[in-house]
Amino acid sequence: MNNTPKENGRREFLKTTAAVGSAVYLGSQVKATAQTSSETLKKETLAINGGSPAVKSHPANATQWPIYGDEEIQLVSELIKNPSYAPIAEFEEAWKKHFDCPFVKAHCNGTSALTSTLFALDLPPGSEVLVPDYSTWFPVVPMRFLKYVPVFVDVNPKTMNIDVEDCKKRLSPKTRAILPVHWYGVPCDMDLIMDFAKEHGLEVVEDASHAHGAKLKDIYIGKWGRMAGFSLQTTKPLPAIEGGIAMYKDIRDYERSVTFGNYDLPRTFPEDSPYRKYQGTAFGGKLRIHPIAAILANIQLKTLTEKNTKGVAQMKKLNDAITQLPGLSAQYVRPDAERVYYSRNLMFIDEKKAGASRSAIVKALKAEGVDVTEYQWTLLHTYPIFSENKWWDYMPVLPKEGTPKGCEEANRTAISLPYFTTEQPELVEQYIHAFQKVWANIDKLS
Ligand SMILES: Cc1ncc(COP(=O)(O)O)c(C=O)c1O
Predict the structure, then answer these.
(1) For ligand 1, atom 3, which residue shows the shortest CA distance?
(2) Beta strands, E only, 331-369
(3) What is the Cα–Cα distance from 237 to 231, expressed in whole angstroms?
(4) What is the phi/psi pair of residue 224, to 5°?
(5) How far is the CA of 193 from the centre of ligand 1 (A)?
């Protein structure tokens, strides 16, 4: 028996869906509470002014991640006793089945998974790739080795995802591909992106590192583009401590991508594969996932849907309640999309509608015990590597206007709240109380 807090946390959370219940029911229940108590809330003293904080304490397991248990411990121990690479193929088979996709390759991390898909695109030197400015550098910096040119594009400030309208403005005769990123688990407008790509003959590779199991129009994120890469790093929705995986629709993409980082696999390709002859040398990368990571990922995959569903339901309870407050909104999710959560719950404050500045509100919420910060993402184009000639055969294209409008708005308005990964009904209620209390007393914030 294992009674570690980790294992308890997981069981507790997995027990919960029934308790979390239907969003409609919970939403209306919260609304009723809010309506009946607004006068009382006004009489409460804000913690920032010496009152008692609304959030009493954060249980240690509230944001615990990753959540591993006995099965992981047992299978990793067995691997240590009998070292083997077998868990890699087992994980890849499980992933193929789960996502119903023909070709996958596990990698040592998301960066290598994405870089090998970009290599598989086989674009001519100087090809431009549209990437959101509001993103991570991981798959973007390696473009310099491939002689690709990142072109930084604005995001929709309500979703924080790449803005298709802005993509249109940044097109050039050299544009060849687009790399959408599903920021914090919110699906990009993949239907619009695919239409746009088709119209202009562009390839699409999805960076699905925050969005394992998310869907748009009932299609898994990662299955829209020609290829996709996922990080399996420790904070991600499917955590293997360190790891990655790439998905392919076409066997030649798979073979080329696999040959980028696996010296020992070309011999497994069909006789007519143009990549078979590179058995042994491959193309210079060695990007194999560690079998321990493959074991962790494979076990986590079994509960991915369940964890996503319960996590989303719990955050919906919180967000449905607090977004009734003026000027507070969550990352926008289309009605035909199913988001997942990655690491944090990002929201936005419209200062005018809320009646106080973001910083004053965050300060007051913090005093109430809320784990909240003003969210500020460093825009990719501002990193020195993208403007120094010596690193690039073809220079990246930086936004001419400086800071793109959507990125600026996202950084000006966003706040970051925790993603509760285990069942926390009391904490959710206390968070709702904290927000309602601060909003009821917003006139007292200087
Ligand atoms: C959006 C995004 N893409 C790619 C990566 C790279 O993944 P990894 O850290 O596994 O190499 C990350 C990692 O944080 C990420 O957030």
Answers:
(1) 209
(2) 337-338, 344-349
(3) 9
(4) -85, -45
(5) 21
pLDDT digits (tens, 9 = 90+) for 3-49: 333 333 434 444 433 333 333 333 334 444 545 478 899 999 999 99
Residues 209, 228: Cα–Cα separation, whole Å: 9
Say if residue 66 is preceded by a cis peptide, omega within 30 of 0. yes
Q: Which atom belonging to ligand 1 lies closest to the Cα atom of 235? A: 14
Radius of gyration of the chain (CA): 23
> Is the pLDDT confidence value at 123 over 90?
yes
H or E element that contains 310: helix 291-322
pLDDT of residue 37: 73
**Ligand 1 centroid from CA 102, angstroms:** 23
- Cα–Cα distance for residue pair 22/6, rounded to 1 Å: 27
Q: Which residue has the tokens 């219940």?
A: 21
User: 237 CB under 6 A from ligand 1?
Assistant: no
Cβ–ligand 1 distance for 210 under 6 Å, the answer yes
Ligand 1 centre to CA of 111 (Å) is 6
- Count of beta carbons in the 10 Å neighbourhood of residue 241: 14
Q: 357-392: string of b/e by CB count within 10 Å (b at 16+)?
A: ebebbbbbbbbbbbbbebbebebbbeeeebeeeeeb
> Which atom from ligand 1 is nearest to the alpha carbon of 135?
1
Structure tokens given for 316: 């919906």
Specify the length of the chain in residues. 446
Beta bridge mates, 175: 128
* Cβ(163)–Cβ(156) below 8 Å: yes
Best mutation site among 111, 342, 377 for ligand 1, i.e. most ligand atoms within 8 A of its Cβ? 111
Please report, to the nearest 10 degrees, the dihedral formed by the alpha carbons of residues 124, 126, 132, 138 taken in order.
80
Query: Closest ligand 1 atom, CA of 242?
Result: 10
**What is the pTM (predicted TM-score) of this model?**
0.92
Ligand 1, residue 207: give the atom nearest the CA: 3
